[in-house]
User: Fold these one by one.
Assistant:
Number 1:
Amino acid sequence: MLAKKTVKNQITLPKAIVDKIPDTDYFEVSLQKGEIILKPVHIEGSTARLRRIRRKIRALGLTETDIEEAIHWARSR
């Protein structure tokens, strides 16, 4: 399949390709051996990220005091 670069350096991805990666709006772009590589990236909203962090903190058994002490330690360095 062909894709053409516009004068504003934009490329439209072919529909047949986009249909295979639904719910993807962002791509990590890299250049490897002269080939452009696009990797789908799913951007996580801040609310979901915060929930994930809080779950991990609970799983580790950390308390609010532990977090406050860690922040104090980091800021005093």
Number 2:
Amino acid sequence: MSELDDIIAELKQKRDELVVQMHLASKEAKDEWEELEEKLEDFTAKAKLGETGEGVGKALGQLGDELKLGYERILKAVKDD
């Protein structure tokens, strides 16, 4: 399994955990959720292109980190409510 596959699997796991709790989320958390859903679709599509250039890999890494942090923020917000 490639590094991108590992990142995608981790993001999907975090996403699955949040899906169950989203009904409890605040409006702000739900808005961020929608943004992250779009970014995840974009990330997954780009990762599947098979492009391995340094620039593409770096951009995907940054996007993956942004998604992880976003999911973690939402999870924290939902648990704090």
